[in-house]
Design goal:
With 409 residues, the protein is α+β, with helices and mostly antiparallel strands. It is built from 14 helices and 15 strands.
Amino acid sequence: MTVSRRDFLASAVVGSLSVGLPGAARGAQDSANPKASSASGKRPIIVCAHNGFNYLDDAYAFLAGGGDTLDAALRVVKGPEDDPNDTSVGLGGIPNEEGVVELDACCMHGPTRRAGSVGGVRNIKNVSLVSKAVMDHTGHVMLVGEGAERFAVAVGFPRENLLTDHSRKVWLLWKEYHSNEDWWGPGLDDPRWQPPDMKPQSEMMRERFRRLEERAADLGIAPELRGEAVHKVLFPPTGTIHCSALNAKGEISGCTTTSGLAYKLPGRVGDSPIIGAGCYTDQDVGSAGATGSGEENIKVAGAHTIVENMRHGMSPLDAGNDALKRIVRNYNGDMAKLRFVDMTYYILRKDGVYAGVSLWEGYSPAKLHKIAVHDGTKRAEKTVAMFKGFSQDFPPEPRVPAEVKKRFE
């Protein structure tokens, strides 16, 4: 049997993952962030996605003052939900393919071992709080669609238009220039899927950027926002925030909220409201959450996998990397496909040890994956990436990780 060069390199990728991270990457994490690998951590502590950074001070003061762990986490994620300039969640979220904002969220309260979730919710801004209301006021765990919206109104949440003028213009830009490359499929895991024809990459992409920027100007998108708008058309964002909070007594909770995959099919629900995928908390072990490619995370039950790994003795760092390896395994290490996948995990163990891991270093050199942490000192830290490179860099070019390529060439 003959083996092609591409198949050989793909096998090498999977083989390299089977023995864990390269020593250099593991060592860098140990020195840059000793809390992620030390025997004991610090409590109280909050760990969240980077878009929660500006909301950590208030939430930490509340937590340190004796506030409930879930209420502290919700204080963090409510900030981006309320911010019309944050297009990843809540008000101003990028809409589905019909121009309608649909939101998902879930929460888990460690001390009482309860959970609540909502999916596909329209017209309600703070779906993270609605997920808690499902937990507090119903005998259910998940409500979706119109029923979830009616429930939210019944318990006091106001209906409001979530589509801001800016998000509407970004959607129009996508609809005019990109809707022929929508989410109808085939998907990445379909054998019929082929990478987009990007040759000659630089010339084609530059021309596409130029035309999109011209149309963005015609639509009235502000000059300083046009580049970002074009990027959201070419690389539909996933948009999510996760937060886990641990108090001095060792009580822990987590929540995740999102506007979901941009331009998605109406009714699409990603990993964020799925207990065990976008968020999972176990009072005996710890908490984990995710942002990134929701479909991929659902297939590996990422947050639950991480918490179970920690239950069986893995460190937060190793537990997160194991979940990433499962995503890579699902594509047999095919970098032509994995280049279009990204995932970040936020992990907090009950003793205060934490980690942030990601499939790639970021979306681009200017948009690195980071976690936000507050344990008395607020800071942002880069994630430990499994692959060198960026999932949405310009021009997009599938690459075998440099260390693997060097080893086998």
